[in-house]
Amino acid sequence: MNSLTRRHFTQGILAASALQTLGQSKRRRGDRKPNVLFVIADEWRAQSFGYTGDTNVVTSAFDQFAKESVSFDQMVSGLPVCCPTRASLLTGQYPLAHGVYINDVQLKPKVKTLGECFRDAGYKTGYIGKWHVYGSPDGYYGRREAFIPVDQHFGFEYWKVAECCHDYDRSFYYEGSDPTKRFWGGYDAQAQTEDACKFIKANANSDEPYFLTLSWGPPHFPLGTAPEKYRQMFANKEIVLRPNVAPDRKEQAIAGLRGYYAHMAALNDCFKQLLAAVDSTHGRDDTIVVFTSDHGDMMESQGLQTKLYPWEESIRVPLLVRYPRKYGKAGRTTEALMTTPDVMPTLLSLCDIPIPRGVQGTDFSSLTNTRRTIGPASTAFLNMPVPISTARQFGIAEYRGVRDLRYTYVRSIKGPWLLYDNKHDPYQKHNLIDNPEARTVQARLEKELDLWLKALNDEFLPSGSYLVRDGFTNYMEPYSAVTYTRSPWNDWESTLPACEFSVDFPNHNTSAKPPGKSDPGARSTAGA
């Protein structure tokens, strides 16, 4: 073989090898499951985005993302408080099933968890930010800063996590199995976002897909702690209040919203940075990006603060899912009645990962579902088995309820409590309970609620029964449950008794009175 023939032969071998490698790469990429970026904000209500009609906010990145995503406009947080929601996201179960129906108790899963499902399906798993399912049995303040052992990471391998910290400028975390406390530099959401971007770029094109959860602490209070740049954006801006903000709480609402919106503007820039990182890897079409929140915030609507309550500002949360490969590049909305336990099975289904036995949530990856895994498909379930924190402070009793595409119905432990026509009364200013014209609707939703209680084996017991059953007797001092009757729209004089209550953390039984006018940026962390 002469040198010319030998060179052509060698070049042919190399070309064939390159083509074979390229073919294998293409096959591998075609068979590869999608990457998943799951972003969770804390206390961001669905109403506070430009794309949902709030003229105060600066949410351009989220608004553009909504134009490219499926928006689950009826998504609700069924038990709108931090730990129960996060436990439901990890297990796909309702609170009385997974056992975390109050804050600061440890999740002890009875099913295979979200991170374990993705890990076992061949994903590189990661979690950055707030965790809040390890529990606080040894005392609220100390335990929230405790090191979380590896066996409590529930399948997440890359790990830069704190149980709970809302000191955003001195926010700690633990890395992997190292019990050394570390600190994020500056505003923690920005530092966490930068770390998430590094993870995305490092793992986007490997043979192993990634599932990364980024869990921000803001816009949860304290409300006045966003970086100065963002606080100045709202310092002198006119704030348009929702029409159901209590008349005597407008000043407090405006002050609180300035800080709330400043955190949101900061997170908007963080989210823009995340999306740019995804795009830089040329993996947009094959990356599922999900944005949601654990619950909302009343921000003085109905005369109430924070979450916990069955009104729209508390229970309605964003859920945006961008997956061009499946849903296309144009945004759309769906009226699927999703709630928190449905997120896990939906994400698993999008990635062709089997849904474990014991998961109670329903797969909504088809964007609609006429049958639920558990419970009637015509409603979403609302519940608070044990009133905690400001719920007790405002006299909110134990409740269960349902919400369909038009109505919200809630029964407290004392009987029928709330009924709203959300179509004609979107700010829920007119309670229709026992209104003769709403008798048929109330009866129908009462039956729906009974179906839910039966499906979930929920006996709707007094809160103390659950606390005793599960050994949480030190969690809360006994209190006299009264039904919240404050109505700013009919008789503004509050009928709420001036009762004493006890702060609901073990070893911190501080007595206090019902709230008056206070600094909205310095709320109690009791409901964190």
Plain-language structure description:
With 528 residues, the protein is of the alpha/beta class. It is 30% helix and 15% strand. It has 15 helices and 16 strands. It has a 10-stranded mixed beta sheet, with helices on both faces. Strands 11-12-13-14 form a 4-stranded antiparallel beta sheet, with helices on one face. A two-stranded antiparallel ribbon has the order 15-16. A hairpin with a 2-residue loop joins strand 13 (407-412) and strand 14 (415-421). The chain starts with a helix and ends in a 16-residue tail after the last strand.
Distance between the termini: 78 Å
Give the integer mean of the pLDDT values: 86
**Approximately how much beta-strand content do the residues carry?**
15-25%
Taking strands numbered 1, 2, ... along the chain, how are they ordered across the largest sheet? Answer: 6-5-4-3-7-1-8-9-2-10
Fraction of residues in helices?
A: 25-40%
Query: How many strand elements?
Result: 16
Broad shape:
globular
- Which residues form runs of ≥5 with pLDDT under 50? 3-10, 12-29, 478-521
Number of helices: 15
Structural class: alpha/beta
Largest sheet: 10 strands, mixed
Rounded to an integer in angstroms, the radius of gyration calculated over CA atoms is 24 Å
